[in-house]
């Protein structure tokens, strides 16, 4: 027993020594945090630049490529975004309705430090646009639709209880514009701006689109509102047209329609079809511009369908359904006989 106990004591002593020696050898390698870490707002309505300078006393690690681990988030969000980079800046889009916080530390790769990963303390930075005006002066119910992937239109309602002479202005920016640009064609009601009709937006798809609606009034400052979205995700196409319905061998039904006119490629559509056979209605979707089906009963007298379109998941993350097309119908034999009879009747009475 005594031997075993002694061995255990010796084992722990060895272990403690080992731990201490590794700590002390690691403690010799230290690196400073990056310097002058800051969040810079170039005036692009949410597209910010995080930038920093190399840490002091890097000369001990001349052979090493220093890396930086950068973490950032909007202040009330749960998750940090993490980036590892060798550069001295990083750019991303942020929601300027909220504050932004970021932190960064220097990393020394293991081959520079005898196998252990060495990191500095964090440098921290925050950014927020000092809030002006009260919450009630913000615009409400902002709604933006990119009609047929061609015409962007945004509309809003004035803030609650703002004076009638409060005037709102819309600014927008995306990568490709030199600077934030003001709306050139406002939609107005009683002289107050309540929307914007955008000009042609060259090369604006699949990138963040930033909007700020701010304003001014005689009495109170107006709280600005910021929005970020991607245009391909708010497309509302035109409804399909040239609907054709044909019935073959008394029960095979073929529905066909034309792809909506405009710049949206045919492969980007999904269609929803509403089909009515006498009193029965069903709805289905397809990515083709035709659909084969069969009649429930070959005695049914009226088959009708209409279609609407949306941009599909192969071309965007989201979209808005078009209006429904007009209805196209096929009418059964019995119906045709009846209508012939009734038109004959009309002829007789004339
Ligand atoms: C790595 O270990 C060697 C040998 O133990 C030592 O001479 C050298 O100074 C150590 N390097 C660093 C960066 O601590
Ligand atoms: C704006 O509205 C406020 C409150 O109704 C009024 O006191 C002020 O004179 C108006 N200003 C102008 C320029 O019409
Ligand atoms: C609204 O925002 C634009 C773009 O950032 C800015 O140039 C303008 O001065 C702002 N207007 C007001 C009244 O704050
Ligand atoms: C109609 O359907 C019935 C049974 O489903 C079938 O026996 C009959 O031949 C069909 N009529 C025509 C004209 O195809």
TrEMBL record:
Pfam families on file: IL6Ra-bind
Role: Cell surface receptor that plays a role in the regulation of IL-13-mediated responses. Functions as a decoy receptor that inhibits IL-13- and IL-4-mediated signal transduction via the JAK-STAT pathway and thereby modulates immune responses and inflammation. Serves as a functional signaling receptor for IL-13 in an alternative pathway involving AP-1 ultimately leading to the production of TGFB1.
Membrane association type: Single-pass type I membrane protein
Complex formation: Interacts with IL4RA. Interacts with high affinity to interleukin-13 (IL13), but not to interleukin-4 (IL4).
Annotated GO CC locations: external side of plasma membrane
Secretion signal, residue range per the UniProt entry: 1-25
Keyword terms: Cell membrane, Disulfide bond, Glycoprotein, Membrane, Receptor, Repeat, Signal, Transmembrane, Transmembrane helix
PROSITE patterns with a match to the protein in the record: FN3 (PS50853)
MF terms (GO), sorted A to Z: cytokine receptor activity
Keyword Acyltransferase among record annotations: no
Record's protein name: Interleukin-13 receptor subunit alpha-2
Cellular compartment(s): Cell membrane
InterPro entries: FN3_dom, FN3_sf, Ig-like_fold, TypeI_recpt_CBD
Domain Fibronectin type-III: 239-332
Gene expressing this chain: IL13RA2
Major site of localization recorded for this protein: membrane
Family annotation (SUPFAM superfamilies): Fibronectin type III
